[in-house]
Amino acid sequence: MGDCTIVLTRGPITESNANWEKIRYLLFILGSRGTDWGRQMGQTSKGKMRNDVRQHLEEMLVRLLSNFRSIKDKLGSARSFAHTLFMLSEPDYHELVFDDVCKQLRETEAHKELVDFFGNRQYLWEEPSAGFTSSDAHIFQLYVSAVLLRVMASVDANAEKSKNPLLEFIDFLDQPDVPRHVEVPLLHLNMVQNSYDLGDFGTLVKRTLPNEIIPESVLENLDVPTPIVFSFTVRTGHFYRGTKFPLSDILKAKVGLLRLGVYPLIAYNHFSVEHVKPWEQRISDNDFSGRHWSKEGPISRSIRQHSITDGDVERIISLQKSFRHMGWESMSSWRLAMDRLDDASFKLECGSPDAILDLVIGLESVFVDRDSRQESTHKVSIRVSRFLEATLTKRKDMFHKVKQMYKDRSTLAHGQRWNLDEHAVARVESAATLLGRVLEKMVELESVNLDLDTLDLS
What we know:
Number of helices: 18
């Protein structure tokens, strides 16, 4: 099995990509869901372990812990255990299978019994293991070895109270999902109060973060005296890789609502996910394939700082219910325009004047017919004015604002230089505010696509 271990974990996978994706799905999208299959394999109707199954699992873990200590002591506990703990702190813990302790642990009867236990019950993944090929089984064994060694090392670090962590691990597996606390430092915001509670949506807190999250040099360059931290809780399966963690759209949606209700140029360049249990894999923002953060630069200092008010907080709370009805997962006109607002914020932070292009495209996503081939400047200017304003005077003013957006866009689109000086940044902010008003009103109306024909007749 040693040779197979090296091929499957360090070398190329020789099987088809489809089969490998199936294996990855089985191994990494993990959690107990209490399905009919799961109940037949040792769970009650509520998704909980039966008492006899729970007791059996506890006995097997105690035996494995005893084997772990014996092997560790035989190999030289200080060096081997220190190496194990070092690897446990790394994001990718497949290296655990090469640890001497883990290699010998996999050969014990206690380990084999636990692998068989997890192979026949739905506690470590969402799909049953029926149909596992021999290659699937080898990878699964390596995966279980890594998880179990993480548990054993965590328990052994507190040897005098070993049983409590083992019971805690069983309780952890017995949960239908796991709460995870997420913190996002927001840029370009100030608060008079120390915190604002936004209910289920999250919390805004004014506090200084540890230097490893935002270095002091970055704070000085951004000229932000105290960062505002947005925190919220999500629930996921038990063991997650960052690329499978459902945080991408959640982050974009939540920050998107803050942009609509508070300030359109809110930005962020870091986030952290609470490490719930010592045997879990840590989740880092570097694990995500998507772009979620912006690059600090001199442009950041030209962006106005917005002070959050009680009115902003009330606005966020009032918009939440309607925001949930907007169908964030679907590619509606509203969602496309929200994505463009996010892109514009990112590009502005990076010092790119292309931010204005995204803001104009955001408006066109909402106000231009999908099959239209006509010049859109005049049509969009008229429709935006009618949609946002009720009086002729205000509509005329809005009409000229949209025309200015198009003028700035044309400057870039025709290859002319458009420097992002303070005046240009102010115009980008004005354009972002305008797009934000459109998107906010659509939320109020709970309309993801506007009736353009009716708008033309208004």
